[in-house]
Amino acid sequence: MFLRIDKLQTELPPPKRQDPNEAAALQELLGGKYGEMSTLSNYLFQSFNFRSKSKLRPFYSLVASITAEELGHLELVSNGVAMLNNGPDSEADDAGDGGDISGAPFADMKDIRLAAGFFSHGGGAVPVNSNGLSWNNDMVTTTGNVVVDLLHNFHLECGARLHKLRVYETVKDPTAREVCGYLLVRGSVHAHAYALALKNITGVDIHKMLPTPNIPLGNIPECQKYLAEGSHRRLYRFSPNDYEEIAGIWGNGETALPGDPPGELEVIAGMPEGGKIHQLTGVPSAFTPDYAPEEMFEIAKKLTAKV
Amino acid sequence: MFLRIDKLQTELPPPKRQDPNEAAALQELLGGKYGEMSTLSNYLFQSFNFRSKSKLRPFYSLVASITAEELGHLELVSNGVAMLNNGPDSEADDAGDGGDISGAPFADMKDIRLAAGFFSHGGGAVPVNSNGLSWNNDMVTTTGNVVVDLLHNFHLECGARLHKLRVYETVKDPTAREVCGYLLVRGSVHAHAYALALKNITGVDIHKMLPTPNIPLGNIPECQKYLAEGSHRRLYRFSPNDYEEIAGIWGNGETALPGDPPGELEVIAGMPEGGKIHQLTGVPSAFTPDYAPEEMFEIAKKLTAKV
Amino acid sequence: MFLRIDKLQTELPPPKRQDPNEAAALQELLGGKYGEMSTLSNYLFQSFNFRSKSKLRPFYSLVASITAEELGHLELVSNGVAMLNNGPDSEADDAGDGGDISGAPFADMKDIRLAAGFFSHGGGAVPVNSNGLSWNNDMVTTTGNVVVDLLHNFHLECGARLHKLRVYETVKDPTAREVCGYLLVRGSVHAHAYALALKNITGVDIHKMLPTPNIPLGNIPECQKYLAEGSHRRLYRFSPNDYEEIAGIWGNGETALPGDPPGELEVIAGMPEGGKIHQLTGVPSAFTPDYAPEEMFEIAKKLTAKV
Amino acid sequence: MFLRIDKLQTELPPPKRQDPNEAAALQELLGGKYGEMSTLSNYLFQSFNFRSKSKLRPFYSLVASITAEELGHLELVSNGVAMLNNGPDSEADDAGDGGDISGAPFADMKDIRLAAGFFSHGGGAVPVNSNGLSWNNDMVTTTGNVVVDLLHNFHLECGARLHKLRVYETVKDPTAREVCGYLLVRGSVHAHAYALALKNITGVDIHKMLPTPNIPLGNIPECQKYLAEGSHRRLYRFSPNDYEEIAGIWGNGETALPGDPPGELEVIAGMPEGGKIHQLTGVPSAFTPDYAPEEMFEIAKKLTAKV
Amino acid sequence: MFLRIDKLQTELPPPKRQDPNEAAALQELLGGKYGEMSTLSNYLFQSFNFRSKSKLRPFYSLVASITAEELGHLELVSNGVAMLNNGPDSEADDAGDGGDISGAPFADMKDIRLAAGFFSHGGGAVPVNSNGLSWNNDMVTTTGNVVVDLLHNFHLECGARLHKLRVYETVKDPTAREVCGYLLVRGSVHAHAYALALKNITGVDIHKMLPTPNIPLGNIPECQKYLAEGSHRRLYRFSPNDYEEIAGIWGNGETALPGDPPGELEVIAGMPEGGKIHQLTGVPSAFTPDYAPEEMFEIAKKLTAKV
Amino acid sequence: MFLRIDKLQTELPPPKRQDPNEAAALQELLGGKYGEMSTLSNYLFQSFNFRSKSKLRPFYSLVASITAEELGHLELVSNGVAMLNNGPDSEADDAGDGGDISGAPFADMKDIRLAAGFFSHGGGAVPVNSNGLSWNNDMVTTTGNVVVDLLHNFHLECGARLHKLRVYETVKDPTAREVCGYLLVRGSVHAHAYALALKNITGVDIHKMLPTPNIPLGNIPECQKYLAEGSHRRLYRFSPNDYEEIAGIWGNGETALPGDPPGELEVIAGMPEGGKIHQLTGVPSAFTPDYAPEEMFEIAKKLTAKV
């Protein structure tokens, strides 16, 4: 079972301008082969399909709890996409009669890359990559063989790191850059964790391949505050009471990777403090939430008052 | 953010025999157009993309909290699939040298419908339908328009009910039937909830279309215990503290649908008690978790001891 | 614009038994690469996109009018699919309370190849091939170059003939065999027509490649009545008043292919007489049209009475 | 069976300039999830698969006859796409030696969104969305359950309306705007018709949800002439003699939706008068219809003369 | 550039009986995620896209030359598929008038899993998996980053080994088992080679993870003759003169993996001796090569005589 | 079996500037329906699946040997794509610390059409078309019927010629134009060869349809040097010793097509001389081959020295 908290794992700064192609770049991190839909779904189905759960508890718990974190990553990237497509909030736009729609008010949407994203989703995020292609089952690996699955996961996190780096190098808006910075730190933790799991089973020091690609997090300004708070050494359990056994893998005297701020690895019982979810003000002229939403707002207000 | 609890929403009885084609039937409820990947992803992305969240709080909270329940539905169906592919647990099979693999021990897998499910996933669940076709973005509707999205969700839950009924009529194993019975009750709650949301906004008594298809839950033996406990009148918040505003929609004097056991609708602060996750004993001859896993078990034991 | 007539191009005999895998074989002729969705859509979009329509009128009219016939072919195959999935009509089944659904009444559907066809469509036809894969745009050729398009169409009809022959060799039910027999005759006409169009433009006697594959229609019992009535020499305009210019290609002294009953090619102003559409009796236990449809029947009766 | 008439349902004004990205926007209305391929195919296959046709005649006839109208909608959008990709007609371009092709005469095509549309189709329409993704079977709903299918259709028309509105807000060319204006009026009729069908069966006033999105047709200049002629109150039978029973649903004292010009709903025996199909002058340098088409024109002339 | 030799890498024993579902199992090794289309295409495109080829020559040459071997693997599996679909050769069937096609001579094809494989390909191999799903670009990884690509390749070969083992455990025919046995040995070589490449760059002893899954080749009877000839220690250059630099990776004192017959790794200048390609006798009644092919045979004979 | 030679079939001039959208145009010739993946795969699988190989040797050998040439075409286009995405070589960029990545150094990639091509492949070629859609099995025709397959191949080469012409008309860079010029000549040879094969079997002078589209190679400057050397009259065996029987089809007194430089057709025992493969200098800031590759270069140097 899963519970939901109405917060993001980290707070995103508001976008400085509407930039649908930059939002599309973030979509690569959402629905691309190495995006969050992939990491999430790989671990989610691996955890469902895990054999001999009780006898392999530390490995099962590792995959199961990282899954919960990945749900929050998917949420973070999706929020970034929607924010960049929407642009800075505009209180004025959030009500009224929707405005005159006959003057091609969205002519700018004609030339963006993911035009269908405006027509179909009004700028919302969906599980597609930066070219609008759907995420799908070909991106799910769950073989039932623990070594093959963990090896796949290690490679997946390295590939994901490469993609995040390239998206980071492409975007300028602080919203998008924050998404990349945060995910680079957390993705590095996951790569490290899967490497340690493999090391425990096979005896191979595969964590010595990290960082791959060969660039330290320290080179990326947006990672600094997360490194400073020790995020690169923390694995959250993302569960009130379960998955304690991951401490057998993430801990046990293992330390941060060379090049990152030093210190011991630690398992955190809960979750990060997180930040508030951005308000996406409506755009009535795009029928989001609708053309003339005041009545709807009024109804919602009354319903809320009854609670 | 999301948290994870190491339990299922309801406990599934163990399968009586291995039945890959029956597992494939359940896959329709996982990765088909009206399956759990669809309900989950529609509400997940709608909640990410929701405009004017604070002004439309009851509607946002409804979509957001049902999302969390759908994650557990996906988990439930996936567990059912893996259990049916695996068959009754066999302690003896869970260790040793994997056995002789040269005598075509899996010749039975040659003629099953989802052969790739054995070759690639060792019988695990993946986001495909009963013919092995991948779930994809064409099954996600998130328009940003609140009425269109809610209307879509209402139709989706009705379609899902129809599919669940047909799968139910096809399967014989108690594992599969329990999955269907539980989901039919909970799916009816979601259809009802979206209908009430629409009624509040548009004034149309669309909940009077329920049940669609036109058959009461009372006709289905596997639904009885859930009806008896009032599950059809309960909407769980699936959150420690958030989404209270759904009580403005689910409550307010609204009652159970005619034909179902009567009573007032109620919001439950937490989540259902749930049941334990089934152990999937390994099949070393199928390399799950591996060919000779004893050493791996030993390592896991030591790691667990360190926690 | 298109008009619709509530008849099939030829009448199909009722199926002798329910046979979902035989229905699935027919699906290859509906949604396969060389199926009716492909022939239809190729000609439909070619006719929309045709350049210099007035200057190339006979060629435009040929493509445009064959399109209308293909719509009826799609209808014919689809009816065959639905009839074979449904089985012989059963008046008794068409009403009542739907019956007891808790005894796995559709357990037989568990092992059919297109299980999703039962779960999602209740046995109805959809644009997929015999393995359930969707027809899609990769099967549409509309280059705008008249010679390339006509050459493609000629090859497409030859390929379609091969596929129809193989499906014919696989099926035993009279419904399915009639579909194949009728389409083999009409497909041969289309191959012949495109060959004559190419011959007029390029001077190459490409119709001398026919029949491809190298077997005369005379070998196929189900084709005899259509040959006897001269169907292989007729091209219907499928339009009240348009597309007369096709007589410049199909006619002009051209005669039937060697091996087929001899005679001159002729353009028919209207359409074939056609046959009645099969009634598909409902299966309330499969929720088609619904679980307890009597009230619906009553309403329909009253509405009809008002007309 | 279907007949074809060589006219469009309404006449489209010629484009003012070539605009491939605007044509791509129209593709969303052709091959997008809520596009004409979807509305057409949903109703087409539902009509093929309809159970108990004679007992549910008004509902069957409604779906069957709207199908015929949708074919014409597909034709209308496709013509719009081809016209916008082609630009204003240029008599001079329609013959000759094709011109010098070595100077990158189509360099402008390098940066358009649907580049494959030029390379493969020479600017013709195909069943893809505004990002070039193929329409496919995941967009077909035909469950065999009449209430679920009608509810789906109602939701589909509402979603289609939203998409048409957003495309309308994006395009400036009169060709594209006329396509949107016409389809908005006709789509509203279809939403209204399905709502009335549902109301007859279920008793729920679901038509009171209309218009969704919440904006009257009166706000859209391009809709005015169609409203003035009463198009919003007319349902065409699109058949010489069949489908009369739809008058039981569309009629019976029902009136136009509030906000639209008032009046009774009426069934029209035939079809709209329609308008001429635009000539798409060839572009020999793009090999449409070919590089040096004069000889082809000459041959066509002679063949036409023989008819 | 590539050259072609009209031989297989190893000779396949003829099939004992026609077995389309066993052929379908082999398709997983052809078009599945870890099949030969994937290994081939990953290395093919990586070799095309390789940066700094001259400075990284041993690594480039490794990927480039293994590509050539993979082409032969694809050929081997494809031959196996076609042989199993065809069954034992039947000289008598190879000519004549094709036989009577009206008695449903291929009724057996109705119930096979890949029915489209018979209808469309007459039993030939195509790039799809064991459920008929197409191989596609989502299965290609070519990041341009040498470490990520090599790590991916190592994981791919381990996954491919797992899939080959499961297919091996499912099939009984000597043709299919020989395909698996040969590919298991050669796949192990490739896994080993990529591990050594990674070891050279990163210093990590990743080859110590082998074999994964954890079962020695010695357990598989069909591997014995290849082990005996030392195939597990040989890397072929598959080039007349190029790619010598691979000896820097495969060689240099490295030895066979523990558990396999011991010895030094060696680079072979040429290619394996190979075996003859199986004659696939025609099935005229299935129109392969055609219905009455004698005339075609006669023509071919004359053309050959002219050479 | 296949051998590999470390050369291209013809040498490509270096690109004058980086132009990702021009590279994307070339992708149409790689992964589009009529691209090199299609020609290659059609002939490759047809050659695997060919029935009665010995009795139809000239036809088998024709398909089998052209396959080998197509592999080189795929390589040529892929090299062109990678070169255009990379731009002119820059020695300076090929080493060092990768540079500062925090200043959005790849902001230009945000607006290109195939953004995923940069994020996922660092500008490398993959089997997708100019809109990023994957090549797939729907583009493979291998029916087992020799006439249908050859007819398909003839049409495929004509279609491919049309696509190459349109891409040629769109690109300006000498790298891209050289790719088109070379492939136009070689594609014409293949169309001619398949036409002659069909003529031999059916007696139809189908080669008289050539050239289609109706423009001589002489109009294209980039084709001149290849015409001058007689490439349009040469069919290479691309095999050390096999496939000699193609001389029965390509030869026998057949001559060049009218409009091209005259002369007899000739089979060449070997392969063209070819040209060197372009060095793709690394872009460490894009992590190709990695961020700081000097150490990797050093290791490669030492490994090479050992050979």
The neighbouring-strand order within the major sheet of chain A is 2-3
> Low-confidence spans of chain A: pLDDT under 50, at least 5 residues?
none
> In the CATH scheme, what's the topology name of chain A?
Ferritin
| Main sheet: strands, sense, barrel of chain A | 2 strands, parallel
The percent range for strand residues of chain A is under 5%
Helices and strands in order:
The structure is a homohexamer of 307-residue chains.
Chain A: E1 2-4, H1 20-31, H2 36-49, H3 57-86, H4 115-121, H5 146-168, H6 174-202, H7 224-228, E2 234-236, E3 266-268, H8 294-306
Parallel strand pairs in A: 2-3
Can you describe this structure?
6 copies of one chain form a homohexamer. Chain A has 307 residues and is mainly alpha-helical. Chain A has one domain (20-88, 106-282): Up-down Bundle (Ferritin), CATH 1.20.1260. The first copy, chain A, has helices spanning 20-31, 36-49, 57-86, 115-121, 146-168, 174-202, 224-228, 294-306, and strands spanning 2-4, 234-236, 266-268. In chain A, strands 2-3 form a two-stranded parallel sheet. In chain A, helix 1 runs antiparallel to helix 5 (146-168), helix 3 runs antiparallel to helix 6 (174-202) and helix 5 packs antiparallel against helix 6. The longest helix of chain A is centred in the N-terminal third of the chain and has 30 residues, at 57-86. The interface between B and C is medium-sized, with 31 and 29 residues. Strand 1 of chain C pairs antiparallel with strand 1 (2-4) of chain D. Chains A, B, C, D, E, F: This is Manganese catalase family protein. Chains A, B, C, D, E, F: InterPro entries: Mn_catalase (IPR007760), Mn_catalase_dom (IPR039377). Chains A, B, C, D, E, F: Residues 1-20 are annotated as: Disordered. Chains A, B, C, D, E, F: Pfam families: Mn_catalase (PF05067).
